[in-house]
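Why predict the complex rather than its parts? Because the way molecules touch one another can change local conformation, and only a joint prediction can capture that. The input here totals 619 residues.
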Amino acid sequence: MSEDKLPESHGSAGQHEVATHGDPFADPGLPAHEPRRTDIDERAAKRAERQVSLMFVVSMLATVGFIASYVAIDADKIVYIFPLGHVSALNFALGLTLGVALFCIGAGAVHWARTLMSDHELPAERHPIEADDEVRADVIEQFKTGAAESGFGRRKMIRNTLIGSMALVPLSGVVLLRDLGPLPEDKLQHTGWDLATPEHPLPLVNMNTNKPMKAEDIVVGSLTFAKPEGLEEDDEFFQQQIAKDALMLVRIAPENIKDKDSAELGFEGILAYSKICTHVGCPISLYEQQTHHALCPCHQSTFDLADGARVIFGPAGHPLPQLKITTNEEGFLVATGDFAEPVGPSFWERS
Amino acid sequence: MKKLSARRRHPLAALVVLLLALAATGGLYAAFAPAEKAQADTAAQSLAIDEGKKLFAVGCSSCHGLNGEGSSDGPSLVGVGSAAVDFQVATGRMPAQQPGAQVPKKKNIYSQHEIDQLAAFVASLGPGPVAPTEKQYTSTNPDDVAAGGELFRTNCAQCHNFAGQGGALTQGKYAPSLEGVDAKHIYEAMQTGPQNMPSFPDTTMPEEQKRQIVAFVRHLDEEPNPGGLTLGSLGPVTEGLFGWIFGLGVLIAVAIWVAAHTTKARKS
Ligand code: FES
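Output of the joint prediction:
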């Protein structure tokens, strides 16, 4: 960059009309005040007032539209909208109406300020941040003046529509809270294994082969994943179901099982544990066959499968639930009931 | 008389005797040869076991005991089978270089012939998984990759990562990366469950499924990477780090550069 572009060299160029030779930075002052159309023409002012109110009314209607679409449109409905392509009708309607509602409040306010509020230029001196009593009194005075000048009290239509639109908009948020429901009731207490009873045991199906397994198929040191019989991968709710039903089967030499109750729930050292971490529900199956530890990859909760899946490290609050298994007359592994406690993460009502 | 005696040694007699002798030898050979061959086989087998035992005494017995019965330093090898020996020795994990949470892979010092001898000795201690033949782990069906991918995600990905890059386990143990691992060794690892890896025996994961998984893992190696840098295929961690350090770092550097080159910053 050359010297002549530096600020010092600008003054002498003498291109600014107000800059005289002796004072290159003279204050040009404020331009003369020009009244707006709405200041002199009462009809224009009325029209502007109606426009502002119209925008607030549109905002109210949009909020009502938001609530209506939330209630009326099916969450699964997909529609084709030209530049966007295939979109969810519900999301599109919610976004559009809420956008219009907020935009109209803003646009109305801006229009109001530009056409109807006082447009006197007021130079304000810079001053220290802490204000003395005099300044505070001045501020209150200014606020009152501002309120009077905005015509908020005078222009009733604007006031009412503004209050209406501002009051309605938060309803959109309140309506959305419904998505937190419905309450799960006792769904978290049951899994697909609750179909099993001692009279009608439910076979364990190998996730790899999709076939029931015999006890001798599971060897010491192996890891097998199982699901309840009757749950098929093409079922509509397979993913929701397997998120609760998934089992990991390990076999530990009976003399290495430290927890008596756990050994009893198993069959000859074969133990069936829920695969869902009791912390926040990640699938865990990082099983170490020599230490019998299962690790959760999400937050490193470690469970000792030889000791009733006791938590030996990490944030999980409960041991992994264990399923009671045995074999039926043909020698296939079966479950005789559901898990004794809910699988997966802790929740308030959890036993 | 002379004529008669002369006829007793007919010129062709020698030929007849020769033919008879040949037939007899051939017959005898046909009768005894298979037995001899079998004898040769068992002899070769017991020779391999003997040789293996010698190798074992030198390389393995200090931890696993003279007869593979195990000690406080190493588990018993009765029943681990030849597949386990082939995997552990051929990948250099055994003999272990030092005790620790996990024995790492290292350079193998045995020839395949010696490994087979060691395997023969260990297999003779008790029945166990047999090292697979090439047919068992080589897939010829292109669909196997897709099927194997599914099985991999169900059974292996939790430890070895969805792209086979491996991952950490507890207390210094880890699941090794599967990159560049021999198809045979992948198969054997599933069969035998080395170290802390659980095993996937044929009863719960049939031979064919193991072959499919091997096909998928080998495919991961060959697959071209359209994005250029894989950043370890570890997912959001490395990618995020890269974005923050390189992406944002460059932006900050540019911002500083721009700020340092405006007129205002220039000292007059
Ligand atoms: S989800 Fe398993 S440790 Fe957090």
